[in-house]
Amino acid sequence: MRKGLADLILDRGLRAAERAAGAVMADPRGQEAVARAVGLAQRGLKLLEEAQERALHAAGFAARPDYDELRKQVARLKRKARELSERLETPRPGGRAPAGQGNGSAGGRSDGSP
User: Fold this and answer.
1) Contact status, residue 20 vs residue 26, Cβ threshold 8 Å
2) At what angle do helices 5-26 and 28-58 cross, to 10 degrees?
3) What per-residue confidence (pLDDT) applies to 108?
4) Which of 5, 73, 91, 98 is the most buried (most CB within 10 A)?
5) DSSP strand E in the chain: where?
């Protein structure tokens, strides 16, 4: 199958871009320039996210950090509920039910002893 003109141009362009990127990354100055560009992009993204969060809060909407915090709180509550459920289901030594269950006596044992 023959390649069309567009495919040939694309292939040559990709090869040229690969050579240019290799030359930039081989030079320490190129590496520094790429590192600076990445750092600037990360700072810009952080500023954009902060501005977006402020705008959402000003409009009365929740932002991603709010949802992240809620997700953590729900996970903690689920873990606590699971732990409590396990404690209630686990029989106590001597056949006694956990506090708040059993024979309804307010402390002490059913045989009258404390």
Assistant:
1) no
2) 100
3) 47
4) 98
5) none
